[in-house]
Specification:
two-stranded antiparallel sheet; globular; alpha+beta; five-stranded mixed sheet; 25% strand; 2 helices
């Protein structure tokens, strides 16, 4: 066995961005104030927001992202995150309703169902404290995508007709489904 320091034994990530904004630092393995007898009391880790991903993402995500940019040109400069095999597209809140309708109505996309809506409060992100994530599912193409929208604490509305509770009505007159409602939770 070689004599290596723990820092030398860490995997390298050459494609990772140089630095991400750190919003908190955690110490120890467990919660604050607990009597840590595990020996992990010396751990220190920085909590960072996820960065931005650049393609290629692999199929079918490259085709999906390409089609989204083709039918919604307003998302051309939008932040995209591909992490753990899931694609998240950040949508400006004024574009949310149009984006959701396009994701539902476009024959290539066909995201028929909003499976859940989750909300998180990031108090350190001034002007974008509230994040709402719409988890969409295409039964037709058997794929998922997430749309994330942000808004400030002072104006916590993302759209007039929330797609989570009043999914835009299609040609059949039936509404889509959404199994969860938005909640406001504080990130650890």
């Amino acid at each position: 066995m070689s004599e290596q320091t723990p820092e030398e034994n860490l995997p390298t990530t050459p494609d990772a961005p140089a630095s991400k904004p750190v919003f908190a630092t955690k110490k120890g393995m467990w919660s604050r104030g607990s009597g840590d007898t595990s020996g992990y009391g010396g751990l220190k880790r920085e909590l960072v927001m996820p960065g931005r991903s650049e393609g290629p993402f692999g199929e079918p995500f490259d085709q999906l992202h390409g089609r989204v940019l083709e039918v919604i040109p307003a998302l051309a400069g939008a932040r995209v995150l591909f992490d753990r095999g899931e694609l998240t597209i950040y949508v400006p809140r004024e574009q949310l309703l149009e984006t959701v309708r396009t994701f539902r109505d476009d024959p290539f996309l066909r995201f028929e169902a909003c499976m859940s809506v989750s909300g998180v409060h990031y108090p350190q992100e001034t002007g974008e404290e509230l994040h709402v994530v719409y988890h969409l599912l295409s039964y037709t193409h058997n794929r998922r995508v997430r749309l994330e929208v942000t808004c400030p604490d002072e104006d916590p509305t993302s759209t007039r007709s929330a797609p989570s509770t009043r999914w835009p009505t299609g040609t059949s007159g039936r509404r889509g489904t959404c199994s969860a409602s938005s909640s406001r939770a504080t990130r650890p």
